[in-house]
# Entry
Amino acid sequence: MTSFFTTITLGRWPALVLAATALALGSPAHAALRVFACEPEWGALAQELGGDLVDVSVATSALQDPHQIQAKPSLIARARNADLVVCTGAELEIGWLPVLLQQSGNAKVQAGQAANFAAADYVRKLDVPTQLDRAQGDVHAAGNPHIQTDPRNIALVATALGARLQQVDPAHAADYAKRQADFAQRWQQAIARWSGQAAPLKGVSVVSQHKAFVYLYDWLGLKEVAVLEPKPGVEPTASHLQSVLAALKGTPARMVLYSAYQDARPSEWLSKNAGIPAVKVPFTVGGTDAAKDLFSLFDDTVTRLVAAAGSRP
Amino acid sequence: MHKTLLRAGCALALATPWAAQADTASDIAALRKEIETLRSSYEERLQSLEQRLKAAEGATSPNWGAPSAATAATGQPATASPEAAPASNAANAASAATTAAAGNGFNPSISLILSGLYARTSQDPARYAITGFSLPPDAEIGPGNRGFSLAESELGFAASIDPWWRGAANISVHGDNTVSVEEAYVQTTALGNGLSAKAGRFFSNVGYLNPQHSHTWDFVDNPLAYQALLGTQYGDDGVQFTWLAPTDQFIELGVELGRGRSYPGGDNDRNGAGMAALTAHTGGDIGLSHSWRAGLSVLNAKASDQSVVGVDAAGAPVTSAFSGSTRVWVADAIWKWAPNGNATRTNFKLQAEYLHSTRSGDLVFDPAGANTAGAYRAVQSGWYVQGVYQFMPRWRVGLRTERLDAGTPDYGANAGRYALSDYAPNKTSLMLDFSASEFSRIRLQIARDRASVGVTDNQLFLQYQMSLGAHGAHSY
# Structure
């Protein structure tokens, strides 16, 4: 058996194995903590809390649907080298993250390890289904996973992530603590500012394209009167759009919201037919040109919503 | 600290009957004091629990990971929300209680794939053959049953075993009421350094399509090259080791050893390995919209007295017995495109594989009759190219074209006993599928199959594939 096997090994493979080893040894050793963030908001948060102590790599962009990402080779390679994985959790990444971690061969970032951080574990989830049935569409057992649209959630996650950074990189614990305290202070001031700016939005009725904004509504006191997707994750159909339009006659809404990664057409259709503005919400960092970091993400979100609410005759 | 006090209190309370027998004033005073302590400790505890509950209602519900995070957070001078830390502890206690109550929480995740097929073919599937390729009599080639049939119903189980292992099994129930174990393996989770080891029954990692379960295929059937050279899909019992290089470029190397359970292996009864394979894959992104993967693998399988059906010089089917080894090289490449990496609306997938097989050893012509042995060497190959385009949400079209080269086998002493053919089997398939959600798919496929010389089989398939239960994560 040995000879049978070595014929292959020694015959044609050493060159490739050597080349791979050379590549492996050639890559520079990173001094910074390598953070693999599933979504841009957590990448931005890790950057705020880690500064130059972390080397952040973000798996998805604001223009991608975080439910539907493929376990691409590039992502597997990055997960393999990560010192900390920061994701939303609550089953948002269930279609791709498990296979990514499985194939990464990286023991420390597996689910349940300290270097695997799920943001949704640290906030109170809304829309937790009382009954689990796929007939209800793409429901998440743990509740709505789009927690990043409420800055108060970001604050909670920041506290937990700051602590986690100290845990996985204890050598720089004091630096992380300092950065986190600084961020927390700036963030609380910003929340107060946004809440003030958004005061006119309280009680305003809105339509959502996807049930992606429950936390935003919970924060600002917006009222969701209809959703364009007939079931979560199911593309809006013509008949369902018609029924939403009809329902709006009885309970009018002031605007329709959609996320940057979504097809704008259903919202634009409703906008045209119901005569209400369609608002593109950046949803995460990079979703719009103005949403460059976590602070400008909420600056832009609030500005867009307030403008839409004010534009009504 | 509270716990210690409570325990002391309880112990004292239990001891009361005996203590009372002493009946001295000092004892009574001491007991009164202890009871006071007990009462105040309970009150303190109740108050703290009430506070925690209040905080939990207003703030958070973290998982098991909270204690460490929360402890660290309380140690900090300024936290974003002071109630976060105590809230975590309360919620943590609550969630621990729920988990303990649900013993089924440790059950493996279960998924079930249901699939059915309607097939219409212009030729009789029972006479299906691939000209120039001698395959075992039970080889899974061709379109299978005509008319309505239940395809594989696939039950999948997966769970962590302990902090070091995970396990998975795929049990396939076939339309003819037979059951087979497609995969059943344990895999390490804690080796680190990019290493992973698997043991049990699994699909070999050679090529691109080979490790994929049939419900993830983009066409109803596997390409002819897989049917003719790898027994449709090569699975084996053995061990697999993979190593992922610590580079930004994806580079994965793998080694497999197995018994050679299925064709081209001969289900060997030997102490050593009957199959050995080496796999190498690399891949990456090109900008935001493109990603790719390419690989080169080689599989070496042994067989002794393997029964294969070929064609004799007179054109009649004849059984032969092959003893020797088969080496199959597989080169695979896949390229995926999605605008800005968002595959939800439109996306395109182009994949191609080339298989090259060298079979060498001895072949016994008609063991039950003529029974003449001769040296044997056959070099055969095949390729396919397919493209699948999602032109709007939920709808995809695909085209696959493929061709085989049977080569000119050297039959040694048996030269002249077998038919030789320079025919190149080929096939073209076109498919359209609709997925109402990511859990259901209905597919229409038409194919012009020219696997046999002089025969054109026009095939039509209507297929459904549905996934129930646990949400599976699919590989690239």
